[in-house]
From TrEMBL:
<dbReference type="GO" id="GO:0005829">
    <property type="term" value="C:cytosol"/>
</dbReference>
<keyword id="KW-0234">DNA repair</keyword>
<keyword id="KW-0515">Mutator protein</keyword>
<feature type="binding site">
    <location>
        <position position="9"/>
    </location>
    <ligand>
        <name>Mg(2+)</name>
    </ligand>
</feature>
<dbReference type="InterPro" id="IPR043128">
    <property type="entry name" value="Rev_trsase/Diguanyl_cyclase"/>
</dbReference>
<dbReference type="Pfam" id="PF11799">
    <property type="entry name" value="IMS_C"/>
</dbReference>
<dbReference type="InterPro" id="IPR036775">
    <property type="entry name" value="DNA_pol_Y-fam_lit_finger_sf"/>
</dbReference>
<keyword id="KW-0963">Cytoplasm</keyword>
<dbReference type="GO" id="GO:0000287">
    <property type="term" value="F:magnesium ion binding"/>
</dbReference>
<comment type="function">
    <text>Poorly processive, error-prone DNA polymerase involved in untargeted mutagenesis. Copies undamaged DNA at stalled replication forks, which arise in vivo from mismatched or misaligned primer ends. These misaligned primers can be extended by PolIV. Exhibits no 3'-5' exonuclease (proofreading) activity. May be involved in translesional synthesis, in conjunction with the beta clamp from PolIII.</text>
</comment>
<comment type="similarity">
    <text>Belongs to the DNA polymerase type-Y family.</text>
</comment>
<dbReference type="InterPro" id="IPR017961">
    <property type="entry name" value="DNA_pol_Y-fam_little_finger"/>
</dbReference>
<comment type="subunit">
    <text>Monomer.</text>
</comment>
<dbReference type="InterPro" id="IPR043502">
    <property type="entry name" value="DNA/RNA_pol_sf"/>
</dbReference>
<dbReference type="InterPro" id="IPR022880">
    <property type="entry name" value="DNApol_IV"/>
</dbReference>
<feature type="binding site">
    <location>
        <position position="103"/>
    </location>
    <ligand>
        <name>Mg(2+)</name>
    </ligand>
</feature>
<dbReference type="GO" id="GO:0042276">
    <property type="term" value="P:error-prone translesion synthesis"/>
</dbReference>
Length: 347
């Protein structure tokens, strides 16, 4: 199955938070980092980047390059606070989130029915609304390309890389842009006349190992747009679920069953990615009077297959009081445990 992966990365993260908390800094060359003589720059605003300032640059050099820069000390606790707010937004989209750093993550949205571009826009909008900050989002069918895409038109970027565009996008790129090719390898390769991905494409497989060591094979694939790394999820979850507010309030059980089916697919996919099985299924509804209700069913056996989730979901749905119209429906599974190899379907 072709995957759909999103990579998100906040823009000038620490500096953007400093501007948010002190609006008089907005649009100015803000440089966050060790302010003492021997300190280094953590990051800086895009305004400061115009002067050649960048992360990891010694502060005294940044002062030379940008004498009117506004140097502010690091407030790590505050950045972590905003970071958790952002991750909460990401986890509200899917539980298949792999955090990479304080401001960066991968999301596997392969099994969400909405169009990936729409999901990306939703993330951007929510982040803006809830934090006032901008995030750049890249979408593609693997991690490498999604990350490349999020960097494509930073700040406040959004970019999708489709499979048929890959050669035209990758071939002209300088090799340093390829994840895994560092400064050292770039220098070495430039020395033998290799500057772009197009130049690198001409090198035979076996030479990649000698240039890049154990990552040789991965880089060989990467420049061809191939990257099979999975989105790694580590957070322990207690339940997995999806919910939606309906476009119009309804009480038609067949229509509601369609939502059960759609969400069951998402849930089965998430369970599979986490190698989990569930024992309990809960349907949450909110009726037109804005009151929330839940109905649960716990089975004797663990279940994880989409057809099983649909069956249990259908059983729970039948028990729901449909006298009032429903405005929101959600399904979740809980009582989770790691799936054993011999696990078989209960049906
Ligand atoms: P980045 O995402 O690399 O940078 P950024 O968010 O500031 O800017 P961009 O728009 O290019 O994404 O890193 C996220 C935060 O991590 C950054 O705001 C500060 C911190 N950081 C350091 O402290 N030291 C470093 O060398 C780097 C690269 C980042
Ligand atoms: Mg960033």
């Amino acid at each position: 199955m072709k995957r759909s992966i999103i990579h998100v990365d906040m823009d000038a993260f620490f500096a953007a938070i400093e501007e948010k908390d002190n609006p008089s800094l907005k649009g100015k060359p803000v440089i966050v980092g060790g302010t003492e003589e021997r300190g280094v720059v953590c990051t800086c605003s895009y305004e400061a980047r115009k002067f050649g300032v960048h992360s990891a640059m010694p502060t005294y050099i940044a002062k030379q390059k940008c004498p009117f820069g506004i140097f502010v000390p690091v407030r790590y606790e505050r950045y972590k606070e905003i970071s958790s707010q952002i991750f909460e937004i990401l986890f509200s989209i899917t539980d298949l989130v792999e955090p990479l750093s304080i401001d960066e993550a991968y999301l596997d949205i392969s099994n969400i029915e909405d169009e990936s571009l729409m999901i990306a826009k939703k993330i951007k909008k929510k982040v803006k609304e809830e934090t006032g900050l901008t995030i750049s989002v890249g979408i593609s069918y693997n991690k490498f390309l999604a990350k490349l895409a999020s960097d494509w038109n930073k700040p406040d970027g959004i970019k999708i890389i489709e499979e048929n565009e890959v050669p035209e996008i990758l071939l002209p790129l300088p090799i340093r842009k390829i994840y895994g090719i560092g400064e050292k390898s770039t220098k070495k390769l430039n020395g033998i006349g290799i500057y772009t991905v197009n130049d690198l494409m001409k090198i035979p497989t076996d030479l990649f190992e000698s240039y890049f060591g154990k990552y040789g094979h991965e880089i060989y694939n990467r420049i061809r747009g191939i990257d099979n790394r999975e989105v790694k999820i580590s957070r322990k979850v207690k339940s997995i679920g999806r919910e939606t507010t309906l476009k119009r309030d309804i009480n038609d059980i067949d229509k509601l069953q369609k939502y059960v089916e759609r969400f069951s697919k998402n849930i089965a996919y998430s369970l599979e990615k986490r190698n989990l099985a569930a024992k309990t299924l809960t349907i949450k509804t909110r009726t037109s009077d804005f009151i929330s209700h839940t109905k649960s069913k716990t089975m004797n056996e663990y279940f994880y297959k989409v057809e099983d989730i649909i069956i249990v979901g259908g059983q729970v749905l039948k028990e729901i009081d449909l006298n009032l119209d429903i405005r929101l429906i959600g399904i979740s599974v809980s009582n989770l445990k790691e799936k054993s190899l011999e696990q078989i379907s209960m049906f």
